[in-house]
Every structure is written in C-alpha cells, then in structure tokens.
Amino acid sequence: MLIGFRCRDDTPAPAPEATQTGNLEIADAVTLLLPETTAPVVSSQVTSQEADADAEAVEILTKLVYGEAGICSTTEQAAVVWCVLNRVDAGGGDIIAVATAPNQFYGYRPSNPVPPDIEALVRDVLARWRAEDSCIGSVGRVLPPEYMWFSGDGTHNYFRSAYRGGTQWDWSLPSPYEEG
Fold first, then answer.
1. Confidence at residue 134, expressed as pLDDT on a 0 to 100 scale
2. What are phi and psi of 72, to 5 degrees?
3. Of 151, 84, 116, 155, whose CA–CA distance to 168 is shortest?
4. Helix 48-69 and helix 116-133, axial crossing angle in degrees, nearest 10
5. Residue from 44, 36, 43 nearest 14 by CA
6. Which of 6, 76, 77, 120 reaches 20 to 30 Å from 155, CA-CA?
C-alpha cells in the first residue's frame, strides 16, 4: 500500500501506480512522469561531476548502513538512509558532508565493505528521495522528515525527532520492503 502526502505548496500529490508486487520499485521511480504536460522526473542529462558525486554518495551511504544497521531489517537499513536524507533536506549539507560529519554516525568507516544488497537498497532509497522531491506522490518513505537522530542497542535502531528526547518513531508508515 502506498500512502499519499502533500506537495510543498500544500496541494495533494498524485499517487503513482503500484507495480505488480504492490511496491514502487527503483525503475518506476526513475521513469514515473509528472502530469502529462511535464518532463520525466529523472533527467538523463547528468554531468560526469554529478555522476561521480552520486557514486561517492552511494558508496559512503552503503558503508554507513553496513556499520549502523548491517544486521537489521531492510526497512531499518532504509531508515538509516532516510535519516541522512532528512538532515540534508533540513539544510545540514550534502549527502557526503552529512554522512561523514564527525561524531554523527559511529558505524561509518571508510574501510567498511560495500555489500551489493545494501548498495542496491541505497540506490533505491535515493531514487525514491529524488522522486519525492519532484512531488510525484508517495514514494515509499519509511521515516518521516522530522526524524533526524537515532541510537541503537546492537540489534535495532531507534529513530527520534530530537537529539535528546523527542518522539520515537513507531514504524507506522507502510514499508515498500516486504519482510517476513
């Protein structure tokens, strides 16, 4: 099930079509169209500098997720990426600056591996984030924008809306990552 949200100008966002599995897949996020009079959400005109920065961001986020949530569910791993992206959206810098900021994400190590499954997840979340920014409707966000902090107990991460205290996330958004 996909949930709706409102665009930045407070108009209702259109709901994208679900795939056969009921999930918004990365390929769908890349090819979804805005209303018929507009261009595709993702432009094919990406400079080599942007591609290099994107590749570096994917590698850093993959290493961060490995260190912070490598043993967690796919949904919890995605939430770590969304946490970084929430900070980016709040003006904390670009993805690389936020993910590598000192004393912020203790699981990030430049020497961490880049497992293909986590890298694919990171790419999926980034595609969803970019699609969301284009106001196409619900994209499968698993962590609301106000949740920018978390701590863990070695098994699970607990996301909060404030550095100290705040509201703990209750996982009430539907996850596009089927887990049994």
1. 78
2. -85, 175
3. 151
4. 120
5. 36
6. 120
